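dumping this here so i dont lose it
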């Protein structure tokens, strides 16, 4: 018996599952897929929210030597077809509430075998068909570290989604090294509010938990109240999320009713966290917030802050072991340290993807010169800590002056009425681009557009403050909880 077998792998509102039970169930999925004809190297779509079936299916697919293709359950048929076709998927495991769209998409991509987790539905075969007890325990299919383990599609905010090929070695190292950095232990309970179909949730939560034998506290869909309930119910010790999730938990009206004393550390990633939010979260919960940085193309983690004693507040930390990260100018020259030397982050090492599946030209462009060009702007200080300023493609050029949206957002977040803020560039006939801000307000905290413009004008250079401010009830979010700036511009 393995030392981890009796430990709980999963806790959820319907019960719990040990690692031994997870091992047996995932063996059964592997057997079921093999009966279908799935062989090592074949791709299998996995379109589920944060429910136990995701974890069972994920490891079952990997045990066959097949490639996991995680998909957002909210995708429409056309999008499902694009991802399944682009990855040459052999089968799809989906979720009953979205099975109708999933089956349409699978049919368009020529995928005949579709299984749905949840209550029975006529559109697809039940997931339980795949988890009939296996007659014999199958040995793991042999794989090499360089073999593709997952094809994770980018969000497509700058064009059509691309499938990043991540290897077994990359996923293992991105679980092992970051997990060691923030001292994950077998008795930890990791709040799983980030979707596991996204690289952050897949690599930095699910794989980390499996590597160290700790427990996943599953929340199927993020809601601040549900997150707080899970922390209290399961005695959660590690909170991992994107900044908007930290904001939502801080602003929850019933926050004080929940016992969150079990928390020992919080991890923020996916987007730059406003300094105001970091400070408020640390003060309210009495834990340190460690910020990291990564992309789908780097299997989640590129840089990370290590601990309270070895971090630089408001930075995304230093490159993890086995990787390099630098700041380059437009000509490809490495920039020296200093906050005035802003350039593009480039990185290389074991964490960088094999490439975009079936897209050699896009791969060559992204990895020109042997370095992954991230599209993110930042600088490095004299001690080697990296700071993210903004997305290169989100830089606003107003009348020839560079405006970094994050700097304006930081000012807005300091206004007592502002709950969320997003700053974008909008076309302007005279200046090329103008600065526009979209905000949502805290409950019971009124503010006017004129007031917010004046607030920014008093605190920013004349070319930086927003001339347009729109107040909305809520700001749209991507699947992993980041503010969807592209959608803001379109609406």
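and the seq i came up w/
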């Amino acid at each position: 018996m393995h030392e981890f077998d009796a430990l709980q792998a999963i806790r959820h509102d319907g019960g719990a599952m040990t690692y031994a039970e997870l091992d047996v169930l995932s063996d059964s999925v592997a057997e079921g897929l093999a009966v279908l004809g799935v062989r090592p190297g074949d791709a299998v779509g996995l379109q589920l929210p944060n429910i136990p079936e995701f974890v069972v299916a994920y490891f079952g697919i990997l045990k066959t030597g097949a490639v996991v293709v995680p998909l957002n359950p909210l995708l429409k048929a056309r999008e499902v077809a694009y991802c399944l076709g682009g990855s040459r998927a052999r089968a799809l495991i989906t979720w009953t509430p979205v099975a109708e769209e999933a089956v349409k998409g699978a049919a368009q991509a020529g995928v005949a075998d579709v299984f749905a987790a949840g209550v029975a539905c006529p559109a697809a075969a039940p997931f339980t068909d795949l988890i009939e007890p296996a007659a014999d325990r199958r040995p793991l299919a042999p794989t090499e570290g360089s073999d593709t383990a997952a094809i994770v599609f980018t969000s497509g905010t700058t064009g059509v989604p691309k499938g990043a090929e991540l290897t077994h070695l990359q996923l293992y190292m991105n679980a092992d090294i970051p997990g060691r950095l923030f001292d994950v232990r077998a008795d930890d309970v990791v709040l799983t509010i980030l979707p596991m179909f996204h690289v952050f949730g897949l690599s930095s939560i699910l794989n980390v938990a499996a590597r160290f034998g700790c427990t996943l506290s599953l929340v199927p869909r993020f809601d601040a109240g549900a997150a707080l309930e899970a922390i209290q119910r399961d005695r959660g010790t590690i909170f991992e999320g994107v900044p908007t999730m930290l904001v939502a938990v801080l602003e929850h009206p019933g926050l004080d009713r929940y016992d969150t004393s079990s928390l020992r550390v919080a991890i923020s990633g996916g987007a730059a966290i406003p300094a105001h939010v970091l400070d408020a979260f640390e003060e309210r919960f009495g834990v340190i917030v460690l910020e990291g940085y990564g992309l789908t193309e780097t299997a989640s983690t590129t840089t990370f802050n290590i601990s309270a004693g070895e971090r630089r507040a408001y930075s995304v930390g230093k490159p993890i072991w086995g990787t390099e990260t630098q700041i380059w100018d437009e000509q490809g020259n490495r920039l020296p340290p200093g906050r005035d030397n802003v350039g593009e982050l480039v990185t290389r090492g074991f964490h960088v993807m094999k490439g975009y599946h079936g897209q050699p030209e896009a791969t060559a462009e992204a990895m020109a010169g042997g370095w992954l060009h991230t599209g993110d702007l930042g600088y490095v200080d004299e001690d080697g800590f990296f700071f993210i300023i903004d997305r290169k493609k989100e830089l606003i050029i107003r009348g020839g002056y560079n405006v970094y949206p994050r700097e304006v957002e930081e000012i807005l977040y300091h206004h007592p009425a502002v709950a969320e803020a997003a700053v974008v560039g909008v076309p302007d006939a005279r200046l090329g681009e103008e600065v526009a801000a979209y905000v949502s307000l805290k409950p019971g905290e009124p503010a006017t557009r004129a007031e917010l413009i004046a607030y920014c004008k008093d605190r920013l250079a004349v070319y930086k403050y927003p001339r347009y401010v729109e107040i909305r009830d809520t700001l749209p979010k991507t699947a992993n909880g980041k503010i969807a700036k592209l959608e803001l511009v379109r609406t």
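The mean pLDDT is 91.
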